[in-house]
Each structure stands twice: as C-alpha cells, then as structure tokens.
Amino acid sequence: MAKRYAMVIDLKRCVGCNACTVACKQEWPDKVPPGEFRSKVHEIESGKYPSVSMVFRRTACMHCADAPCVKACPVEPVKASRKTPEGITIVDEKLCIQCGACVDACPYKVRYMNTDNKVNDKADSCNFCYPRLQRGEKPACTINCVGHVFTFGDIKDPEIQKKLKTAKPLKPELKTKPSVYYIPFGNRKWDTL
Predict the structure, then answer these.
(1) Which pTM does this prediction carry?
(2) Which end of the chain is flanked by fewer CB atoms within 10 Å, N or C?
(3) Cis peptide bond N-terminal to 184, omega within 30
(4) Could you tell me if 193 and 182 are in contact, meaning their C-beta atoms sit under 8 angstroms apart?
(5) Are strands 51-59 and 40-48 parallel, antiparallel or unpaired?
(6) Are residues 39 and 141 in contact, defined by beta-carbon separation less than 8 angstroms?
(7) Which CATH class is domain 5-183?
C-alpha cells in the first residue's frame, strides 16, 4: 500500500517569519506568479485589551481525502484536479482548462488562478512538493522552517501518530477529511478562515 502523507503544524512554535512561504516561492518560481502564494501565514488575533493573543497559522492546500476541488473539476475522463496514490491533491497543468471550478469549490480558499500574470494561468495550490517527495525529499516549507513547526511524513509513522493525539484539522465540520492538522496554542483562537 502506498504511503498516505500528512502534515502536523505546531502553532505554539510558529513565529510568523514566513520562511515557509519564501521557501515555496523559491521552489516553484515558474509556477507561482508574483502576487500569488501556495502557502500563506495568517495572523489571527483574539481577545480585547489588555488580554490580547495572536496565533500565526500557515495555511495551504489541506490535501483533503474528500476533496471538493477534485469533485468540481469537469475534465473527463482523467481530471485535471486529482489525488495521487499517496493522497496528495495535484493539478495537472496539461489537462487544466482554466474554468476555475476547483478554485470556487475549495472551502479553505487556498486554490487560485491568476489570469493577469501568464507565469501560470492554470489553477494551482500546494502539492506538498510532490516532485521532491518522489525523489525522497521533504516539502521545501518543512526543511526551511526556523521554528521546526512542521512534522511531515506517512500518516502511519510513529512521530506523526504521536502528534495527531493533540492535533486537530481546520474546520472539521466541512467534512473534507484533510491531511493537514494543527496543534492548537493553548486556548488561543486559531481556526478562522
């Protein structure tokens, strides 16, 4: 059986430095046009003065097992938006017809299509650096993180399983079964879109 990749993000460790965002842009210079990002760090503030808190949350494709973007893709018989055997959601640029259905269908709003910049005018989102995984490497964001925020690997790996005991998916009520999980920062607000 193929691996099923998962990512656990420890919100207590993220300092909002955007090293993950920069690493992604550097890894994909010919795919991610200026002004677009496969990965973003959101600053989530909560509370009222003098009891204010902030959480930095890296957000990208959730690689949902029940992916609305894949269901929405009208391309047949092989969908442009589809799942790999490892559970990674990808966009096949050769098949993408630029309809934007997958972008509209993503409940996390992490897909984009940039028609103003012709660097990549197809639908796009994080692919867990799938070509790197095929070479036995980890995603660029995980190896460039200064806070060691990410734990990435097969969902059956003991380290991932241990962290999943305290981790939660973003917006579980969406029932997409994401492969990205977050370890909350105490009782700080973190799950806003």
Answers:
(1) 0.94
(2) N
(3) no
(4) no
(5) antiparallel
(6) yes
(7) alpha beta
Q: 3-state class of 108 per DSSP?
A: coil
pLDDT tens by residue, 8-57 = 999 999 999 999 999 999 999 888 888 888 999 999 999 999 999 999 99
Residue with tokens 């002004």, as numbered in its chain? 35
Task: Give Cα separations from 188 to 7, 17, 20, 149, 174 (angstroms).
Answer: 21, 19, 22, 17, 21
- 138-155 confidence digits (pLDDT tens): 999 999 999 999 999 999
Spatial distance between the Cα atoms of 69 and 101, rounded to a whole number of angstroms: 7
Domain ranges for the chain, please list them.
5-183
SS3 180: strand
Instruction: Name the 3-class secondary structure at 6.
Output: strand
- State the Cα–Cα distance between residues 43 and 62, nearest whole angstrom: 18
User: Which residues have C-beta within 8 Å of that of residue 32, sequence separation ≥ 6?
Assistant: 24, 25, 38, 119, 120, 124
Chain Cα centroid distance, residue 70: 15
What pairing do the DSSP bridges indicate for beta strands 123-124 and 112-113? antiparallel
